[in-house]
User: Fold this.
Amino acid sequence: MALLLGIPGKANLARKPLDFFGAALATVTLLLISWAFIDASSWFWAYLGAGFAMLAVFLVWEARVTAPMLPLTLFADRRFSGAQAVTFLIYFGLSAVLFYLPMVMIAGWRISPAEVAIAMLPFGIVLTVLSPPAGKLTDRFGPGPVIATGGLLVTLCFIGLGLTVHLHQVWLGIAPLMTLFGIGMSAIAGPISTAVMGSVEDGETGTASAINNAVARIAGLVAIAAMGGLALAVFKLNAPPEAVAFGIVDDAATPSAIETARVAATDHAFAVICYATAVLAAIGTVLSWTTLQNHRPVERGKA
Assistant:
């Protein structure tokens, strides 16, 4: 807040009324849908159904209110809708892989948490270092080609993780692929925001940013829940009945044959996650090329 002092700003004389009822409906909607996946009990479908029912009420309200918190007209723009779809697909894979890979390495490969953290460190470093150059490329070519290139690299990373997970190679497998992952995400994280902001008018940028952030968070929640269920199902099909559940280390003395089968089933389950997210990332790559700007963005209002 202190940094904002002294910055000149234009007074917005035409202030819109706050959509309190819409905000309440959105809160309840996201709460019910999120709780359905977090709880994952016998009440899953009840919570999820109630969440979608509230979503329908929310959309009807937003279509009729004069000053909606979520202007549905934004989604009429192909660039805006495409950016939301790409965000969901890419961040779905991001959340699933970054959540389950450490679990597989620690519980399956018996790698220490510290070594896992170091092996995954290149992802964050590369993402941080390459984000500014990715922004310059976006200014030159538009977000479409940059995001499509990043999506392709992310897709290749997921495929590589699926192919090499059985090798248990931390430094020759995971670390290089995390580097590739960081390169790909650096071409997506910033440019996707540019794509969202470039598809709306100046007065809607705050709303557009909030929508995109919500889409990314929901994608992560759904990814962890859905891919967890998929991994558990694949694990049960391949692991012996005596093995502990997916992602859990058995500290008791386990016969070597059962332990070997458990590790192999864990690897196979994670490989399925990687291949599934690779398909989604590939779809996101195609959407980014076909729906987002593939030329240098023009200033809003001059298009």
